[in-house]
Structures are given as structure tokens and as C-alpha cells.
Amino acid sequence: MADIHLHQVHKRFDDFVAVRDSTFDIKDGEFFVMLGPSGCGKTTTLRMIAGLELPTSGQILLDGEEVTHNPASQRDIAFVFQLFALYPHMNVRKNIGFPLVSQGTPRGEIKQRVEETARLLRIDHLLDSRVSGLSSGDRQRVALGRAIVRRPKAFLMDEPLGALDAEFRELMCEELRLLHNRIGATTVYVTHDQIEAMSMADRIAVMNQAEVLQIGPPAEVYARPATLFVANFIGSPAMNFLEGEGGLPSGAAAVRVKGGEIAVPRLHEELKAKRAVVGVRPEHISIREDGALRGSVFGVEYMGTRQLVTVDTEAGRLKVRAPNTLRVSDGENVSLSFNASRLVVFDGETEAAVRSDLYSEAAHG
Ligand code: ATP
Fold first, then answer.
1. pLDDT in tens, 170-196
2. Portion of the chain with pLDDT greater than 90, in percent
């Protein structure tokens, strides 16, 4: 078990900054997910934690001890790669036990730990099978087994489910999370898939262009995104954005947009930007008689218990998640209401969300 601390970790490849001054903590036993688009620096951060890449500057601490310059072999961390190279000519037992054999662990202990690991992963019935005949899911489990059997301080996983099809990925996400609940080892997991991140993480670090933009539990990152980028990246369908026609003076409780005014939690400090942007999730807009904004229905998608209604307004095209008991049809004129306590106001220039302590009234309350 381990906690991991990064302090001002910076990585340059020649003139290119891959990771910019990252400072954050990963708690002991936590399932921590680094999420962001391709090229944002997730893998480089993970490789620095593993000891496979040296930071240009900054420190990395493992259990309070500085390991920045220690080689990977001295960090007691298991790295699970996407395409884990299993030994096809060996059976499952030998594949899982391999790291222990190379460490010179006594035979009896290897047998016991391999069997315990296989039971944990529910592949104990396959111990004597060759890996070449296994399904891709079972191969992933063997790969995980090989990492778990060492009982490392932490697991680092770089898009381990990337090669699997969507349905199977969902299943493996569930399994990985259950496995984590059983063994409770600190896990750092890299993905560009927000659904994976939301379903597994205790906390998510959202990255873009070499920077960590926000760290928080999935529900918090979803409800209170710190920047426009985070708001856009998390959630499917994405958050709706309404461009304000100006800033937001101190004490104001509404943002003027094309075609109407959106009530927002009252601010006790002026939003110093020339323009505000209002962010609202589809489930926080409702179709009512006396709403703040009028529009016409562009399309309706049925999604089981809910329906997703796309509405064209003067302020832009908005997605509304509505109960499927509501009867609306294409081209119909509707009026939209916004749940003020759930809106997020952004500074249109810095793209940062207004901090919740700047509101006089409780937002998201
Ligand atoms: P992906 O999911 O595509 O791997 P990522 O978020 O994990 O994306 P990194 O692999 O960390 O991103 O790469 C961050 C940036 O650093 C990329 O632009 C990449 O091209 C660059 N980079 C990574 N490793 C090197 C290297 N050894 N030399 C030069 N540039 C590198």
C-alpha cells in the first residue's frame, strides 16, 4: 500500500513541455484516474511515477520517501500495459508465477500466491490451460494476475482496456473496480474515456495540454467543472453552453443571453470578464410553459426511461433530458426553464468557472 505525491513535476522533451508543474496527491488505497485527450501528458506522468521516465524537474514521493531518481526496479510498483506480453507457450500458472520465479521466491510460496491470485481473479479453473487458447478477457485477467501476484505497493495502468470492444470493456471496468475493492491497492489508471473514468474512479484528474485542470470525485467534476474544457470533456451528451451578452456585475442574479435572461446563483463579486458563459447539463433544463428561453424542437431521441430533446433557441442549440412521458414533436415551439442552483457560470475569457465561494447563495445546494 502506498500514497504517491507529485510536487511540481515537469517534463520537457527538447523544447516541448509534455507535463507542466504537476502537483497532486494520490491517497493510499485510492483508485485514481488520469483522464484527458490523446497527447495531454497522461502516459508521461504515469511513466514518471513508475520510474520509466525522469522528470526534468520536481519530486515524486512514494509513502513519504523521495523516489524521483530511483529506477523502476526499486519502486515496488506494478505497471500494467495495454498489450501485456504474456508467454504463449506457458500455461496460466507459469505466466502468473513468472515475476516470483525471477525474484527467487521459494516454490511453495509461489504455488500458494499464484493460486490465491487466480481465485481472486476467478481464473483458478484455467491455471493449467495455455494462454494462447484463452479469450481476450481471460488474457487480461492473467496479465492482471501477473501484476497482483507481486503484491506491489501500487498498480499503474495505462489504458489497459483500450483494445477491447465496448461491451467487454464495460464488463472489465466492473471487474477491475470489484477487484480493487477486494485488494484495496493504490491504483493509478490512465484513460481518454470519460465513461471508464466516471465508472471506476474514486477521484479523477482531468488533464489537457500538459496540465492538470481539476481533481475531484466523479460527481464533483461532473457537477462543478472547474473550466470550460472539463465541462465539455465530461458528460455525454456534453454540457450545454450559453454565451452571455456581457459580464456579470456584482450582485447580479441573471445572465443576459440572446433571446432571454438566465437566472443564476447571486454573485457577491463582479465577474471581471467582459462576458459570462452559462453551462447547464441536459438534465437541468426542463420544458415548461413559462420558461426563460423559447425555442423550437429540432429532434427527439428516445433513450428508455428518458428522452433527449434538441431545441434550437436564439442562444444556440440545446440538449434537454426530459421524462419520456412528455409529448413533444419536431418543429414544436417550447419554452425552457433552467435549474439555477445547478448552473455553472464561466468566465468566457479565462474559461475558468466562477468559484462557488463567490456566490452569496448556495449553488448546487
Ligand atoms: P496518449 O493517450 O495518446 O498516449 P497521453 O496523454 O498519454 O496521450 P503522452 O504519451 O504522455 O500523452 O504524450 C504527451 C506528449 O509528449 C505527446 O505530444 C507526445 O508526442 C510527447 N512525447 C511523449 N514521449 C515523448 C518522447 N519520448 N519524445 C518526444 N516527445 C514525447
1. 877 888 888 888 888 899 999 999 999
2. 61
Q: What is the CATH number of the domain that holds 162?
A: 3.40.50.300
CA distance 174 to 199: 8
Atom of ligand 1 nearest to the CA of 14: 29
Look at ligand 1, atom 24, and give the residue with the nearest C-alpha: 44
Q: Are residues 199 and 242 in the same domain?
A: no
Q: How far is the CA of 74 from the centre of ligand 1 (A)?
A: 24
Q: Which domain holds residue 184?
A: 4-223
Q: Examine the domain organization and report whether 162 and 97 are in the same domain.
A: yes
Question: 200 and 252: one domain?
Answer: no
Maximum pairwise Cα distance, the chain: 75
DSSP 148: H
So what's the pLDDT on residue 361?
56
Please give the Cα distance from 17 to 12 (Å, whole number).
Answer: 4
Number of domains in the chain: 2
CB 19 within 8 A of CB 34: no
Buried b (16+ CB within 10 A) or exposed e, 128-140: eeebeebeebbbb
How wide is the angle at C-alpha 312 spanned by C-alphas 265 and 324, nearest 5°? 80
Rounded to the nearest whole angstrom, what is the distance from the C-alpha of residue 44 to the centroid of ligand 1? Answer: 6
Nearest CA to ligand 1 atom 26: 13
Cα–Cα distance, 145 to 306 (Å, whole number) = 40
Expressed in angstroms and rounded, the spacing between residue 213 Cα and the centre of ligand 1 is 18
| pTM score, whole prediction | 0.88
Give the range among 45-49, 144-148, 231-235 with minimum mean pLDDT.
Answer: 144-148
Helices (DSSP H) in the chain: which residue ranges? 42-50, 92-103, 107-120, 136-148, 166-183, 194-200, 218-223, 228-233
